[in-house]
Design goal:
Strand content: 15-25%
CATH class of one domain: Mainly Beta
Largest sheet: 6 strands, antiparallel, barrel
Number of strands: 12
CATH architecture of one domain: Beta Barrel
Order of helices and strands: HHEEEEEEEEEEEE
Distance between the termini: 132 Å
Radius of gyration: 46 Å
Helix content: 25-40%
Strand order of the largest sheet: 1-2-5-4-3-12
Number of helices: 2
């Protein structure tokens, strides 16, 4: 016999009503009986029996909960990642600017100390042009005739002599370095006072030439300007002897000199204007 859908729905309704009534009766009895009543006792027994199952289930789902937390954190990190990257870039730029300012201050303090210790009358300048080729031994500075810079004036760094002004216009000047092949500087050894001429070369190295064979020259000897020729004042530091060779057939010892100033990394210099300006110093009067 076939049962209609209406009959099925009606039977299910009666069952649901009976279950609700039964649940209501149990709740009423539960709240009216004491703690030691049968329903309370049964509830405690069921909880005790299911406790191990609950612990196992909690432990089993713990990794999934951890993954959920990690995924949530990851989503937050991605949303903030771009902002953090921008902040990091700004911090790097600020640190770079501060480091550049610190290094510049150190160089300027060295220059000021160098000038004050020798009571020199100078004009400070920045290097605005470097040699265009390996064979060009000149630089350009941002001071010229408007600031009192004239052709022939010596130019120094904090570590010592670097060259001489060979051309000056209103607001810039060209400096021939002591390493230039056309440069010549009257010099002497500090220890023995033996005199010679420091010459540059096409390779950018400098030598102390025309020193007497009878003079004692050792590696490490300090080389200073001698003041001869009227171009450079006496006593400016040029460098130190790095190598000495003397053969029987040589008229003079071959003396290599290491410049005291780093001529490849110049950024700030001073022009010595407190001395009479002599002719441009060149090798052999070139």
């Amino acid at each position: 016999m076939r049962i209609s859908q209406r009959e099925k729905t009606g039977g299910d309704g009666w069952i649901l009503a009976l279950l609700l009534v039964f649940a209501f009766v149990l709740i009423t009895i539960y709240f009216r009986e004491g703690i030691g009543g049968p329903l309370h006792t049964a509830r405690r027994g069921v909880q005790a029996a299911l406790a191990p199952v609950g612990r196992v289930g909690y432990a089993a789902t713990s990794p999934f909960r951890s993954v959920g937390v990690w995924v949530g954190d990851l989503a937050i990190s991605r949303s903030d990642l771009e902002a953090l990257r921008r902040q990091n870039e700004e911090m790097r730029q600020r640190l770079a600017a501060l480091e550049e300012a610190r290094q510049e201050n150190e160089r300027l303090r060295e220059l000021v100390g160098f000038v004050e210790a020798r009571e020199l009358d100078v004009v400070g300048a920045r290097v605005i042009g470097k040699p265009a080729t390996l064979w060009e031994g000149t630089i350009t500075i941002d001071r010229g005739t408007a600031e009192g810079v004239q052709t022939g004036m010596p130019v120094l760094a904090a570590q010592g002599l670097i060259g001489q002004i060979v051309e000056s216009v209103q607001h810039s000047a060209r400096v021939r370095l002591i390493t230039d092949q056309r440069s010549g500087v009257g010099a002497m050894l500090q220890s023995t006072r033996a005199e010679g001429v420091v010459n540059g070369s096409i390779e950018g190295e400098i030598t102390l030439d025309y020193v007497s064979r009878e003079s004692t020259v050792t590696v490490g000897d300090v080389v200073l300007t001698s003041g001869m020729g009227g171009v450079y004042p006496k006593g400016l530091l040029i460098g130190e002897v790095s190598d000495v060779q003397l053969n029987d057939a040589d008229l003079f010892p071959r003396i290599q000199v290491r410049p005291s100033a780093d001529l490849t990394g110049l950024e700030e210099v001073v022009v010595l204007i407190g001395v009479p300006v002599g002719p441009e110093a060149t090798r052999g009067g070139e």
